[in-house]
Amino acid sequence: MDYLPLYLDVRDTVCLVVGGDAVALRKIRLLLSAGARIRLVAPDILEELAGMLDHQRHEIIQRPFLDEDLSGVRLVIAATDSDAVNGAVAEAAKARGLTVNVVDGAEQGNAIMPAIIDRSPLIVSVSSAGKAPVLARLLRTRLESLLPDGYGRLAELAGSFRTQVKARFSSLNDRRYFWEKVLGGPAAEQALAGNMEQARKMIGQALDAQDEQQVGEVYLVGGGPGDPDLLTFRALRLMQQADVVLHDRLVSEDVLALCRRDADYVYVGKRRDQHTLPQGDINMLLVKLAKEGKRVLRLKGGDPFIFGRGGEEIDTLAEEGIPFQVVPGITAASGCASYAGIPLTHRDYAQSVRFVTGHLKDGGYDLNWSEMVRKDQTLVFYMGLMGLPRICQELVDHGRSPETPVALIQQGTTRDQRVYTGTLDSIVSDIAEIKIKPPTLIIVGEVVQLHERLKWFGLEQENA
Ligand code: SAH
User: pTM to 2 decimals?
Assistant: First the structure.
């Protein structure tokens, strides 16, 4: 190791910063967030910087650095744009045995500043020993996405139970085991989701009843329309920690591949040609698995609350008192529209958008067509491929122009995405010869005209 990582307590100690521009400003922000008193020395000081420091607590000295500036100082940061000045500051500081960091000059000082991920009280730092700071920052960005915003809350919460846990378990091993279970379990998830009271209650219960079987939890997660890049951070995290995964046809292979490898997978179907579990059985299966203490991922295509029957599944859970959370996903309408270059609303063409089920019931529709014929409204039909002729017919019969543009988006956001366009009048015959593969979304409205101009995704396939 080139450096020993250490966290410094600088609260109420004097930290000297030499330099008065944007670089110094960034360092000063950091020092202030750690509670330091700043002594700022530079001949020229940014107005913004001077304004940031309250004169009662901090010192602003407007002149070049002098050796005397080091007296009573805990930490020195040389942040000028001159190597010579930075070097002189570093030498003087080292001569006094002080800790000194030179911005962009690791070798001149004796301490470096890592890239940090701040989830206070939890702090993660990354350093490349000054060799490749940009790489360290890139790594930091990746870690940022792995560490949910709520980790700080979770650490605070755990901290507030420390004394109690110590009193309950005398051995270090038992305490560690307890924390491993709690921090990887439903209480932690509740804390990360912001339900602090619930989390507190659950940790309390875990403390009281160590040996009893704990009830698991259910994550109802939207897996988006297909492209795994469209998952949310939270979706990915829960996908990687679930013990059991219940998925259906709509969840893309690429998304499914990101779930924990050694989880149990249950296909609950919804393919017309395969045996599938009725909805009631899915609801009961979720309850059963959670009661066995499992962390159950119910992974749905798109968003669970948009034509996803997500409400029914968690209704049963709520009734049984099983902890759950719902993670939104990008719904097919958003995903397909973006990837097809069709804005769903547009100042000139559409002032509203309506998501409609195109699922045929007993060969017909129970929809209020007369509400759907306004020219300035975009319609998005889910599950509408079978009913397409009927949908077009009803819209025209109720007064929407037969010239209204229509787009059919097959397997949107995936490598197999295809977009077919036509009008209410023509689309059925336009696609008569084409074998369209599900899932397919139908967009009706003037905004579809924009596709030709704004399309950007999968153009090679389309031209192939
Ligand atoms: N909960 C899902 C919708 C489930 S209903 C969501 O929010 O997206 C199933 C319908 O969604 C399909 O019949 C199809 O119309 C649409 N759909 C889902 N994913 C799609 C995709 N990748 N491309 C096109 N349509 C899609």
Answer: 0.76
